[in-house]
Design goal:
Its EC number is 1.6.5.9. With about 90 residues, the chain is mostly helical. The protein has three helices and no strands.
Length: about 90
């Protein structure tokens, strides 16, 4: 079952990379980066679940990463909005 989650996490990362490389709109690129991050988080949680007592270090890294990802997404959306407004003026 862990291999399934590893595969899905890798697939999410590849789909996000494809979106990042092929899309030119800011919002779609931000979504692609978030998709890549979600794939990495899924892989880390799958690796943490390999051990009978779940590895607390990987879980803590994922929780910290989620907080950083939300903050970075908010900043990126704000910058994209400001950039779009400047372009239309």
């Amino acid at each position: 079952m862990i291999e399934f989650y590893l595969l899905i996490g890798a697939l999410l990362w590849v789909v996000g990379l494809y979106g990042l490389l092929t899309r030119h709109q800011s919002l779609r690129r931000i979504i692609a980066i978030n998709l890549m991050g979600s794939g990495v988080f899924l892989v880390m949680i799958a690796l943490a679940a390999r051990h009978t007592p779940t590895d607390p270090l990987l879980v803590a890294l994922v929780v910290t990463g989620l907080v950083v990802a939300v903050s970075a997404t908010a900043l990126a959306l704000r910058l994209a909005t400001a950039s779009e407004r400047e372009g239309k003026s």
